[in-house]
Design brief:
With about 260 residues, the protein is mostly helical. The chain is about 85% helix and about 0% strand.
């Protein structure tokens, strides 16, 4: 770029000399050369600026991609922590429920051991009559009563065992129902907690996307203004302008050197 600027400066000096000497055709040719070089210089500077802008945009995209990956990594850890916490709470509740079932079974077994079958008055009466007949040596009648008593006792013992089993089933049924309510409540709490985190993540994601979009827009807008300013600064100006022309003396003809000579 510097050699083009040097050429323009040299041609500008030559142009001033041609204007001063009245060599207008040479001045025009010199002016055309300057305009060509100025255009080349402008294109080179714009190309360099575009390259710098592309690098800046690439750097911004890389930095934004890094931020997005960090965002994803952070939320992956958060949801993994939520999952671990949920599994731990479920395991604790399952252990608690299992302990409760064992306690119910042990308590029921203890109660059963300290409880005997309460026989009916009919059976008690059969046993009393059986004893009386045996003492009276009425063995045939005693045997008949004994058979009735044995059959009734077996029936009442069977009924006792059935009632005992049903009582245990009912107790376990109520326990399991309560435990299901507890497990459902835990699942709802965990689900609600995850939903809240997902809402927070979505808000942060939208904020990040908006921030990234605004940064790109601001950078492109800034770069567009820079290119516009560069083009405006390098727009073709009148070669041989007062900045490069020599100051004319008061009595000298000030007619434009590009005007058509009078015949």
């Amino acid at each position: 770029m510097s050699h083009i600027e040097d050429q323009i400066a040299t041609l500008q000096h030559t142009l001033d000399q041609h204007i001063s000497s009245g060599s207008y055709l040479k001045a025009q040719k010199c002016k055309d050369q300057i305009l060509v070089l100025q255009k080349q210089l402008e294109q080179f500077e714009i190309s360099s600026m575009n390259h710098e802008h592309d690098q800046a945009l690439t750097h911004l995209k890389d930095e934004q991609a890094l931020r997005f990956r960090e965002f994803q990594r952070k939320w992956k850890q958060i949801f993994a922590s939520i999952q671990d916490d949920a599994e731990e709470h479920r395991a604790q509740l399952i252990a608690k429920h299992e302990n409760e079932r064992q306690c119910v079974l042990e308590a029921f077994e203890f109660e059963s051991q300290n409880k005997t079958v309460k026989f009916s008055s009919e059976l008690i009466n059969y046993r009393r009559v059986e004893g009386v007949l045996a003492k009276q040596e009425k063995f045939a009648e005693a045997a008949e009563i004994k058979k009735k008593a044995d059959d009734l006792q077996a029936l009442e013992e069977e009924r006792y065992l059935i009632n005992r089993e049903n009582a245990l089933k009912n107790r376990m049924k109520h326990l399991i129902k309560r435990q299901k309510v507890e497990y459902s409540a835990l699942d709802q709490r965990l689900f609600k907690k995850r939903q809240e985190r997902e809402k927070t993540r979505l808000v942060e994601l939208n904020q990040l996307k908006l921030q990234i979009s605004n940064e790109k827009h601001q950078l492109r807008q800034k770069q567009s203004l820079e290119i516009t300013a560069q083009k405006r600064a390098k727009s073709p100006q009148r070669v041989g302008s007062p900045n490069s022309s020599r100051r004319r003396s008061p009595g000298r003809n000030t007619r434009s050197p590009y005007a058509t000579p009078k015949k």
